Amino acid sequence: GIMDQFVSVHARAEHALLLDCRSLEHELLPLDTSAVRVVVCNTMVHHELGSSAYNERRAQCEEAARLLSERVGGVEQLRDVTAEVLEQHADALDEVQLKRARHVVGENDRTVRAADALKAGDYQAFGRLMNQSHASLRDDYEVSCEELDLMVELAGRQPGVLGARMVGAGFGGCTVNLVFAEHADRAVGGIREGYRAVTGIEPEAYQFVAVGGARVEKC
Asked: What is the pLDDT of residues 8-50, one digit of tens each?
């Protein structure tokens, strides 16, 4: 994908980056790092399903887009489908294809609403969308695992945590959390302690603020 490279060039301090991966249009969105922290928690596990499951889901999404295009036309990718169209033509897909499509269509809508939330400085709304995103990744896209779900659940119990979701290809790896800055240290401690108590694994956790992209500075 293009996201890592794009943010390395275009990132700006105190901002998140909204990117359209088709057109490469992008928009900087305000992210007040004095108010919130981004916390990444590592489950320290990786189940050997990643690459094959990724390819399988990509094929399922492509087939769902093809079948929907036969019904309504003009569907190159699932991003071209609205929730209303998907609901109206759900019978064109099998159960698995419908779940995959529901995740992609819903995630695109959540992304737009998340951008609006950041523009409004509504971190509570943004956090709720993160939680919804994880539920969709778990239930419809089916790329989560017990350890990721546990870490998201533990985050939700911590005061000051606004939202949490898995990141990456899934089946292990990390979660990303949005936390009020004054609660970040305590939240990290609570997540790590709870995860260690249940799994016996010592997780890693890192706090981040939004900074600018890669650059060369003359000393």
From this structure: 999 999 999 999 999 999 999 999 999 999 999 999 999 877 6
Is 91 in the active site?
no
DSSP 29-81: EE--TTTEEEEEEEEEEE-TTHHHHHHHHHHHHHHHHHHHHHHHS--SSGGG-
Task: Write the CATH number for 116.
Answer: 3.30.70.890
Provide the domain count of the chain: 1
Instruction: Dump the DSSP string for 141-177.
Output: S----HHHHHHHHHHHHSTTEEEEEE-TTSSEEEEEE
Query: Are the C-beta atoms of 11 and 17 separated by less than 8 Å?
Result: yes
The backbone torsions φ and ψ at residue 215, rounded to the nearest 5 degrees and listed phi first, read: -160, 160
Which of the following is catalytic: 4, 20, 140, 185?
4
DSSP state of 208: E
Give pTM, 2 decimals.
0.94
In this structure, the number of other CB atoms found within 10 A of the CB of residue 193 comes to: 12
136-169 tens-digit pLDDT: 999 999 999 999 999 999 999 999 999 999 999 8
| Residue 14 located in a structural domain | yes
Specify if 13 maps to a domain. yes
Is residue 199, in this structure, part of any structural domain at all?
yes
Whether 217 is covered by a domain: the verdict is: no
Domain of 136 in residue numbering reads as 3-208
